[in-house]
Design brief:
Blueprint (H helix, E strand, L loop, with lengths): L4 H12 L6 H14 L2 H4 L2 H13 L12 H4 L11 H31 L13 H17 L2 H14 L4 H13 L3 H15 L4 H14 L2 H15 L4 H13 L3 H16 L7 H16 L2 H14 L4 H12 L7 H12 L11 H18 L2 H43 L6 H8 L20 H7 L5 H4 L51 H8 L18
Helix pairs in contact: 1-2, 2-6, 7-8, 8-9, 9-10, 11-12, 11-13, 12-13, 13-14, 14-15, 15-16, 15-17, 17-18, 17-19, 18-19, 19-20
Keywords: mRNA processing, mRNA splicing, Nucleus, Repeat
Subcellular location: Nucleus
Family: Belongs to the PRP39 family.
Length: about 550
Amino acid sequence: MQQEWGRLAMIYSRILENPNQQLDRYFNSFKELAGSRPLSELRTAEEAAAAAGAHSEGGDQVNGEEVGSDVAEQSPKPVSAGLTEAEELEKYITIREEMYKKAKEFDSKIISFETAIRRPYFHVRPLNVAELENWNNYLDFIEREGDFNKVVKLYERCLIACANYPEYWIRYVLCMEAVGSLDIANNALARATQVFVKRKPEIHLFAGRFKEQSGDIPGAQAAYQLVHSEISPGLLEAIAKHANMEHRLGNVEAAYSLYEQAIAIEKGKEHSQTLPMLFAQYSRFTYLVSLNAEKAREIVVEALEHVQLSKPLLEALIHFESIQPLPKKIDYLDSLVVKFIEPSSENPNFASVTDREELSSIYLEFINLFGDAQSIKKAEDRHAKLFLPHRSSMSEKKRQAEDFLSSDKVKMAKSYSGVPSPAQSIMGAYPSAQSQWPAGYGVQPQAWPPATQATQGQQWTPGYTQQPYNAYGGYGSGYANPQMPATTPQTAAYGAYPSTYPAQQAFPPQSYAQPTVAAAAAATAPAPQPASVPQAYYGTYY
């Protein structure tokens, strides 16, 4: 509208560099523009100045040995200083055509990823697994391509839909760090920790490690402290990582203080699930860092005084004793294990049977390494008495459940192994009519002539026999059905029983001997139908 042809051509050039669904339309529009306007109007001021300088300096050499402008670099043919305007226009269009072809080729590579993006916008609802996997695969592909600008653009697109997922922010930061773009990495980390996933502890733990590696020790300490105070107080992973960082920095006392502060906070909570694991981790950290076995044992003993016996605590104590020199405190360990795996009114324990059995197995492994024959026998007998009957009962229940399921599968297989016989169909529909049919009738083949079936089809009550073939007859219909001729065979859909049946009168048993030829011929004659002989409702085969 403003007749800014140079800027319009520049916009087309930028469009043709990037793959999009309307790339063909834009390229055709660009060619129409280039054919309708002179080249002097299509070039921007910078391009015109560059072309004039190239002509005056003779920068364009034959055979492409040396090129004086970026436009000439992309030209597929030698350029001379004396090109006509038509040749320059052709070169101008050819450069854009090469950009268009590259964009089309790249579009063919990414079309499968693009079509799999079902939600490119942000929403609080979580994405499904297929979409998350597609984003990961798409990012892998773009990173392999090696185009930095495309990598950044795709990550920014991804973080619109996946803004609530810390793992994508972490991946973005690591990718930018790997290519040396620390400014973009720090910017992405700040957006994640301050805006988008600021309530997720994992992003702050990552920020602490990232800032430590970058040399920002106060920033790393602040990230960990934020988790301790606001995001997730008492998080064992945050305490351990922060203490390990302080130990790496040479602040061992600060590391001890972190554990002690966390333990003091957890002691004030009722039925803390973290406290036993905190004691176990603190004891292990103390022994590995300072090799002070007495202090590590004191921490565990203090834990036994303040918390209820638990699997993590006893497992840590068994492991600690296994790495200590002889003699081992087997009797002390045995008494603690007995209290845990044999709960009583004096020593209540709410641990599950699985936890108690696992701890007993761990203790059996320990006692087999360091115990004598009597202590091994005592532990094995106790384990067999407590847990083998339970395992047997569980196995029996599992076997019964499997037998029940398999029997149901067999019944289902028998029920659906084929179309039921006519006798089975009529018996299921009319239980009271079982005594009317001779024994072994269900195995008789259907060998009646079509004419016989046609004539017998009229022996039902008029309200039933006048229904035409309707595969959905069991659901009823509000439409009037036309009556079928008397000579048309009655065809019924399998299982399409009407909701109600008219009262049936008692009928004498009938013989099902094979009809003779004469009988069949007589049946085809237009004779009055006997009103007292019913015809069974047979299920048809598919």
